[in-house]
Amino acid sequence: MRLQEIIIGIKEKSKEISKLEKQGLIKKIAPRLYTSSMTEAVEKIVRRNWYRILSELYPEAFLSHRSALERLPTTGGHIYLTHSYTNNVVLPGLTLHFLKGHEALEPDDTPFFGNLRTSGLARAYLENLQSSRGTGEKSKTLSREQLEEKMESFLRVKGEDALNRVRDRAREIAPILGMKKEWTALNQLVTDMLGTGLSKNLKSTVAKARVLGEPVDPDRIYLFESLFEELVGKDYPDYPDRNINIQSYQNFAFFESYFSNYIEGAEFTVDEAKQIITTSMPLPARDEDSHDVLGTYQIVSNRNEMSLQPKNADDFLQLMRERHAVLLSARISKTPGEFKDRNNRAGTTEFVDWQLVTGTLKKGYEWYSLLQHPFSKAAYMMFMISEVHPFIDGNGRIARVMMNAELGVKGLSKIIIPTVYREDYMGTLKKLTKQRDSDAYTRMLLKAWEFSSNIYGDSLDTMEEYLATCNAFLTHKEGYLKIIQR
Description:
Layout: E1 6-8, H1 14-22, E2 27-30, E3 33-35, H2 42-48, H3 50-57, E4 62-63, H4 65-70, E5 78-83, E6 87-91, E7 94-100, E8 110-113, E9 116-118, H5 121-127, H6 144-158, H7 160-177, H8 180-194, H9 205-211, H10 218-232, H11 246-263, H12 270-279, H13 287-300, H14 313-327, E10 345-346, E11 349-350, H15 357-370, H16 374-388, H17 395-408, H18 422-435, H19 438-452, H20 460-469
Parallel strand pairs: 4-9, 5-7
Antiparallel strand pairs: 1-3, 2-3, 4-5, 6-7, 8-9, 10-11
């Protein structure tokens, strides 16, 4: 017999449940609530099955207020529901807040799971504009900033007409719900968000950016802020650029271009790359890949170009576009120098929506401008561009170009990511994106910087020999990166 993980105790099954309990097949975890999972923490079981529990135990209640918009328990396990009475019920891992209110409206308050319903969007907006004595998760309503962000997300995806329809429906149901005051507040909020000028009533950064014509990706903004906080309070070493003369600088630039393109799949032998660079001619069978190597080299071998820093947000966008136009000059189909006009992704990672690129980059630039140490600015710059992915193609390469310019302008060694270090590099980028782990990312980049600071010399062949000694040309499966002091 296969038992469900959560079993609801009802009168009709009392004998069966009692028998199962005596046999040690289930255990009671709360009034009318049993589980067949005998070893796992009860709190985890309840949290995992919260919607099923509510559907069976409280079929007349429905998700409302913040829970109608979040559709999940809060981090601390709080759920808010409208019912015929006011009460709090504490279950393992969950606290249910029942708020006395008007019964479900048809067709607004829609089915969520089984018997469980949820407030419709118009009602949920009104509910979240009610006054609340609680704070944080103990508040039945989202904060004003959180509500604005929810509405901005809806507006971004569904458009102005859809938000206006929600407002119209809220006006109709507000008298029924006794929420005329909340309707007035919602009407003003929608007006402010659809306006063309910045309203003093708006609280969230996301909403303010939208009305200024530059909407942002809120998740990425929070991510960039967390990286800034990790970088701003740390001390970092200074690895000077030892490639002082033009020959050694160009030798380094050769391998900088070679590895940066190899990471992205433009795989050449070193001899093939030498032929491309020395002749300025693409290999006949690989025209576009060859031009990518040439374009990257053209930028990174120019000390003057790699000593330019953006002066403001607009200058940052322009500088990045100009460098990208050179880098991808041979790939006309990839619109070199122009931001993407459609969305892009890598695996399961969805990059910033094309309509949010400019606003997100400009907001991200604000934290970049506050950083002081060249390494912190370089690390932040590279991740920000990589995470936004503002172009159709060439994003990784332009991100590394922009990173190294932050170091070059201060006379510090640029950073090379060798083939053997690719998995570490990509892995920590992904970890920062998915898990907000900025420490692993900075440690990875510091190791690459220390390694790169030892790559110097007037002989390209000698530099190649040193890189081979460090395992630079191997894959991750073949070896590991050695840092050999010179």
